Amino acid sequence: MARSHSPVIGVIGGSGVYEIEGLENVHWKKAVSPFGEPSGDLCFGTLGDVQFVFLPRHDRGHRIPPSDINYPANIDVLKRAGVTDIISVSAVGSLNADLAPGTFVIVDQFIDRSFARRKSFFGPGLVGHVSMAHPVCARLGSHIEEAAHEAGIPHHLGGTYLVMEGPQFSSRAESELYRSWGCDVIGMTNMPEAKLAREAEMCFATVAMVTDFDCWHPDHDDVNVETIVKTLYENVHKARALIKALASKLATHEGPCAKGCQTALEYALITAPEARDPEMVRLLDAVAGRVLGK
Fold it and tell me: Which residues lie below 8 Å from residue 258, measured CB to CB, with a gap of 6+?
């Protein structure tokens, strides 16, 4: 069934993003998923009339590298916690001269170059093919743009995010290649987050916080951790202001998303009901329960 209740906002991001002025009823709770250990405990709270759930992507203290994040477990526990809309906040490098450090890019497309991660909830015994033509929720993106404008944050609506495996940064040749493809920003974390959120029928939007110019820009130093961390701390304050401004814009939304995110699996399952692996059905009770019950 399509949701009929008020939204619950899930924020995936780094340490400190959840330390928002006005956030009340804050408590941490251990999350359990049949897909294994998520990145860490979930932080629950309310901001005005909106319920928030925060998940530190790399765990508190940034102890998990991008390739070792359990992306399926992260999305699964957010779904089980009642989250309807996911805001993914992540640090990125810029591949576009017009997107300087400090700019927030509200991404609308991805190119996935990761290769060492589980990218789907589905598999042998229960096959599903979900559309990724429009990988983010345009409704959420519009609200984020309004909130960024209200908070006075330099931002750009639309852009292509190249997801690399990492953990090393790009070579100069790679950086130039991705620029030739028309990519705007580069990072290591938003895939398969976006794919899994789509499979879980959750609205998903990315706020890509530019920290550097990768290594292609002739007038800027090559990317390094010191530069990234300095700009990242500055961006965290902006991210908190953005989320606070976003709360009131999402509070009034009721019912299904006009973009159809909550029905992404409607025609995605291809395995006949009688041929489905019962263990796969069990694992997917939260993610795909709406369609598995049909």
Answer: 139
